[in-house]
Hints:
The chain is of the alpha/beta class and 550 residues long. The protein is built from 18 helices and 15 strands. 56% of the residues lie in helices and 18% in strands. It starts with a helix and ends with a helix.
Amino acid sequence: MESKFLLSWRQKIHRVDPADREIIHQEISELSSPSRTFYLLVCLSTIIATYGLLANSTAVVIGAMLVAPLMGPIFGIALGLSGGDKQLLKKSVASELLGMLLAIALAVLIGLVPLRSGFSSEIIARTQPTIYDVIIALASGLAGAFAMINKRISPALPGVAISTALVPPLATVGLCLAAGNWAWAGGAFLLFLVNLLAIEFAAAGVFSLAGVVSFSRDDRVLITFLRRFGVSLLVLLIMAGFMTKTLINIIQEQNLSTQLEEVLSSEVKKHSTGARLDDLRFEWKDGQLQVMAIVITPHEFDTRQVAAMEETLQKNVNQHSHLIVRSLLSRDLDQNGQVFLAEADKRLLEENQLLSKISRLLNQEINQLPGARVTDIQNSTRDGHLQVTAVVQAPTPINPTQVADLELSLNQSLKQPVRLMVRSVLTRDADKSRFIYEEDTWQKPLSGPELDFHNRLETAVKNQLYIIEPGARLLEMYYGEKNGALLVLLEIRSPTLLGPEQVRDMETTLQEQIDESIRIIARSSLGADSSADYYLGGYDENLARVLQNE
């Protein structure tokens, strides 16, 4: 006798009338026949699917699924196995096998054409099948078989064809083979094989329970079914286990990616205002998590910042993490100078507004110095206080006194302590006739006692040079206090190089006449103006121009 379980299901499922059984057999047999129409549809659906995959067009790929005839032979295999119809089984297997080979071969030929772009997301999506694909194929097989035996829902069969997607995986196999990517080709073929087995198994179950096939002994229906489809079920279960593992790996990778993105986004904002994480790449190599963070930032990250970010990754994500930061420099400017834009949370918004104000104030002050301009502003926190480093291009270095004035101005304007550091990048601008922004334009004009001292010192130096070497000429003179001495630097052009004894004599005389703390360093270069009779200490440059014009 038939078991109560099978009897209950066979009473609930739609039963096929004996008069319709022959019609269903005939329809499935026609769908499974290796006719010219069948192979024409295989070719057309493959062409549509292949170019749809290359164009990354979901709509075109769906169109290929509607044209594809490969679902019919799978129903024929299911019916032939469940009913013991060997002739139908052979015909269906031949049709499916030849259709599969034709689809792959045609896709390979299309893939070998030089006018082929890279792999699109539609192609990649079919190279990593998961347990979801097994469930979809089983449901599609059940729906398709039920549509075959129930005329009231048979119009739903095109929708079933869309869900199973038999030709696109075969087209993907061909494209991957043409590109020499065997791993992806294997993944796509695995997807096709899973779809085939799942549809076959589900359809056979519907045909058996609905009475499309008859069994000689009802009480052994389940045993007979398992004997005929046991191999298919076993292979399907093995594949399902493998795909479940693949799905778990994909989910773990997605979770790791999300965790890395959250931690690194926070760290990037923490270490550099105005910076943001643009892209993230990672891979496992020799047991180490190699992470590449691509950051859009106003200034490049240094090794100290990267080390701190890597330490945070090791604490919060994986202790074997190794971080590489690729800085892509990008600066935002308004009419006042550099501004800082980042994803707006309250703390960052307040900090950006503060730094934008600092940028505006520094630009206003620095631009007053001839030839100077701010090229970058960096910020950090040290001992609980904001430290700002301004990178300035200028003809001469910004000295500590100027930095102190700038810092005082910032503190007064911001009404909070800010420690300022200025990094001077020396530049010299010139036109065809002279250097622009020479050093003397930076200094205030001398007056009073300072002017008197300068004139006395310059006159004494020139007198001593004339005594030592009448043909010598003073080019430049710099002086200032250093380590309790008045250091005087002289640049001299002379017919002979000045030696230590001559410099010592000059220094002694200047100490007696000007200041006992004077120390002299003289840089002499060979050169002199001379007439036919003697060396000249120099001649009037304007006299030469006048004579030339005459």
